[in-house]
Design goal:
Elements lengths: L5 H17 L22 E3 L2 E3 L4 E3 L9 E7 L5 E12 L7 E7 L2 E8 L6 H4 L3 E8 L4 E8 L8 E12 L5 H26 L1
Antiparallel strand pairs: 1-4, 2-3, 3-10, 4-9, 5-8, 5-10, 6-7, 6-9
Helix pairs in contact: 1-3
Length: 201
């Protein structure tokens, strides 16, 4: 008759806890210089009409053509769920709203994309940013986060700004819950093994 010793049960439970915890990456922002505090768009690739203004990336400043592209490549784990969050806002002296497209790319494949058009937030005087989130599952070890200025923006006396960009792994479930499940499963196995020993005797 099959039985399991308490020592083996404890070892199996410990291994299960370690494996489950390892499957949940630590909560850490994968974006470098997400608040644009480092000079010169450090760690970002910038093209078109986007400039660094304080701690934000300012799109189509100075009434320029809305053609900016801002991107960063990050290391990811294929199959892992992530959340991209960022703040975007705009200011205008003529009431023209601004929009931006946020995308997550795996090579040429778009994993997710959204055109964000927040309400007026008086970007110039009070930093009226709105927070947005895009969830995605990585398809490979490298993922690109990209912001593209909307080509139809009226840029006369109107600007849009991005800041506080972050990408975090989404833990499912939390390590504490996993530990409780593993301990509970271990207890169930221990009770069953004790019943079998009693029956066998």
């Amino acid at each position: 008759m099959w039985t399991i010793s308490p020592a083996r049960l404890c070892a199996a439970s410990a291994l299960a806890i370690l494996a489950l915890a390892a499957a949940n990456p630590a909560h850490a922002n994968l974006i470098v210089n997400g608040d644009f505090s480092a000079a010169g768009f450090s760690s970002w690739t910038a093209a078109g009409n986007v400039v660094q203004a304080g701690t934000q990336a300012l799109f189509n400043a100075g009434d320029t053509t809305p053609n900016a592209v801002l991107s960063q490549s990050i290391n990811t784990i294929a199959g892992q769920a992530y959340a991209l969050t960022f703040q975007y806002g705009w200011g205008s002296y003529n009431g023209s709203g601004q929009s931006i497209t946020a995308s997550v790319l795996d090579g040429a494949t778009v994993l997710t994309s959204a055109l964000e058009s927040p309400p007026f937030g008086d970007l110039y005087s009070s930093g009226g940013f709105q927070t947005f989130e895009l969830d995605f599952i990585a398809a490979s070890s490298t993922t690109v986060i990209e912001f593209v200025d909307y080509a139809l923006n009226n840029t006369i006396s109107s600007d849009g700004g991005v800041t506080n960009v972050s990408v975090d792994a989404v833990p499912v479930p939390e390590p504490t819950s996993l530990m409780l499940l593993a301990i509970g499963a271990g207890g169930t196995l221990l009770r069953r093994s004790r019943r079998k020993i009693v029956q066998a005797s």
